[in-house]
Recover the amino acids of this structure.
């Protein structure tokens, strides 16, 4: 992809679709304030800019400090969001496709990640969080809509029906909507908003060392070791990173003292037990405790919480930043639509809580199960772990019970108030590890190359999309898209986009598929008169009130102004 692929799809482009040009109307309100210039705040500001929404990004730090070692493992759909913003994070990282799991000296499994579509992006890349932040900074610097203000810590938030007032030492700002992306240490902001941050912290500690070394054969795999000889009774995780760097993550006892280990020269022995007698350099080292917490509300009036400010997960599975990107994308299109009065205001903002809190609960459930297995909290749980690992040496069935982390995946909005359920495609729940749910309402559509805009996701991100499956009338889809104007909406012939697309989606003849601006499927309908209500629901609107040219009447059942 090039930078030119990131903007709106050309208004001229048409391949059996109805063209529309993207926004569009100037943002009618004050800039949106984003608290926190970490990767979630950065992503949110860039996404809002893509929707033509100006932001002021406040951060209490004096400047970007590119130190530390946090997220490394970024999943395809988060990478895809960044690609859409012109931040080519994937090409700066190390691609890996296989996750190997060992117990003592035996290899239990080697899982290779698959693609539900034909995305140009790999399932995962490893890249340091600081490099990701740098790449996002570069894109932000190019945007006239983003105003970054370092050294401005927010310590007061109040709101009324008209907006939100944020202030800190020496500044006060009034904003229509506030996005709180202030990270884990947002206790004061959460208290100001009256949200609870329930959960717990684990006693066990994890030592993380990023080392630079030449380790042939280790560069494209994630390796997870249960009870290796060099960390008996505990585990070690090894990830390849760019520049011949490897992240080694040891589970260590609760009373572990890194300084004492360094002073005694034992850290070198610890590293050498894994890498042998090669020369290596320690790039970063630190000890972490992990937390599993979530706010009880992700939306408080005109304030939305995103990323670590809203949820903290143990990092096995890489769900922290990856899910923060999902929060940012969900929040951005909703703020853009509500601010322009394109949707039911209260309902669409509330759907942010409904959808992203459900995603957070799913992430908590998945990562908590992993931690229960990795760090058993009772004698019975420890016995279960031992038993499963022993059996897994010989029994293939027991290997499925070995939990070294279910890797990040996009959440499915099957139960969202914006989603129209399809009785022919009931959501079957969390799919097996490594698999994606079949396309259906709530699920993100797989990506693939399409004629015209280059990729299906790119077309989706341009607004609402109504796809006509083979045998479904494109004119009906076009009429439905036109009826929601000025909301950017487009209709397209599925098979004309790609002959593969109907099969990939599992579309049946005569269906219309409604896709949201974040590429999640909102509805699949078979009757023309169901399309208008499905679009209304996607926009959280009681009815379509078109403010632009009338729909092509006759093609569409729900015409301008008609209640859903
Ligand atoms: C060891 C480790 C490994 C991890 N690995 C992964 C991984 O592989 N993949 C993954 O997806 N995630 C991973 N994570 C999680 C990931 O690091 C976080 O989810 C991510 O940093 C969250 O970003 P954020 O923008 O929400 O918060 P942060 O990165 O914490 O940024 C918050 C920003 O807000 C600012 N701020 C705070 N308070 C205020 C205030 N009152 N006013 C103004 N500014 C304020 C801060 O200065 C900061 O710049 C890992 C985490 C750890 C600890």
């Amino acid at each position: 992809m090039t930078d030119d692929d990131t903007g709106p799809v050309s208004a001229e482009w048409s391949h059996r679709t109805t063209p529309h040009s993207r926004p569009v109307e100037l943002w009618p309100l004050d800039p949106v304030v984003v608290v926190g210039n970490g990767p979630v705040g950065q992503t949110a500001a860039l996404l809002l800019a893509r929707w033509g929404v100006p932001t002021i990004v406040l951060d209490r730090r004096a400047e970007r400090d590119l130190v530390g070692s946090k997220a490394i493992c970024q999943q395809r759909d988060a990478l895809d969001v960044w690609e859409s913003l012109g931040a080519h994070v994937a090409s700066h990282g190390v691609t890996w496709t296989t996750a190997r799991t060992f117990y003592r000296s035996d290899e239990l499994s080697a899982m290779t990640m698959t693609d539900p579509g034909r995305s140009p992006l790999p399932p995962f890349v490893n890249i340091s969080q600081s490099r990701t932040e740098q790449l996002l900074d570069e894109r932000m610097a190019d945007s006239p809509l983003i105003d970054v203000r370092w050294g401005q810590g927010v310590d007061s938030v109040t709101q009324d029906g008209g907006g939100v007032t944020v202030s800190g030492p020496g500044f006060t700002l009034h904003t229509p909507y506030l996005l709180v992306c202030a990270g884990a240490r947002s206790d004061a902001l959460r208290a100001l908003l009256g949200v609870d941050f329930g959960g717990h912290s684990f006693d066990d500690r994890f030592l993380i060392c990023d080392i630079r070394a030449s380790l042939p054969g280790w560069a494209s795999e994630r390796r997870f070791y249960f009870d290796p000889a060099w960390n008996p009774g505990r585990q070690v995780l090894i990830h390849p990173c760019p520049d011949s760097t490897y992240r080694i993550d040891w589970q260590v006892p609760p009373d572990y003292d890194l300084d004492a280990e360094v002073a005694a020269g034992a850290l070198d022995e610890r590293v050498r037990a894994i890498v042998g007698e090669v020369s290596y350099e320690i790039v970063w080292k630190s000890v972490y405790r992990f937390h599993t917490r979530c706010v009880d509300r992700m939306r408080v009036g005109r304030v939305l919480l995103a990323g670590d400010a809203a949820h903290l997960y143990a990092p096995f599975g890489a769900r922290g930043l990856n899910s923060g990107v999902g929060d940012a994308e969900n929040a951005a299109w909703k703020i853009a639509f509500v601010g322009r009065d394109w949707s039911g205001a209260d309902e669409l903002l509330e759907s942010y809580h409904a959808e992203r809190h459900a995603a957070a609960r799913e992430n908590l459930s998945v990562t908590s199960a992993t931690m229960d297995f990795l760090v058993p909290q009772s004698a019975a749980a420890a016995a279960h772990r031992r038993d499963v690992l022993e059996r897994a040496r010989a029994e293939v069935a027991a290997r499925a019970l070995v939990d070294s982390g279910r890797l990040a995946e996009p959440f499915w909005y099957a139960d969202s108030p914006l989603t129209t359920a399809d009785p022919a495609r009931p959501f079957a729940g969390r799919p097996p590890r490594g698999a994606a749910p079949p396309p259906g309402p709530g699920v993100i559509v797989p990506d693939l190359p399409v004629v015209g805009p280059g990729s299906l996701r790119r077309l989706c991100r341009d607004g609402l999309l109504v796809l006509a499956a083979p045998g479904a009338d494109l004119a009906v889809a076009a009429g439905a898209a036109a009826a929601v104007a000025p909301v950017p909406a487009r209709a397209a012939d599925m098979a004309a986009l790609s002959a593969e697309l109907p099969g990939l989606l599992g579309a049946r003849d005569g269906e219309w598929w409604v896709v949201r601006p974040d590429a999640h499927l909102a509805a699949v309908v078979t009757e023309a008169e169901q399309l208008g209500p499905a679009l209304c629901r996607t926009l959280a609107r009681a009815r379509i009130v078109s403010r632009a040219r009338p729909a092509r009447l006759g093609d569409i059942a729900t015409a301008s102004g008609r209640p859903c």
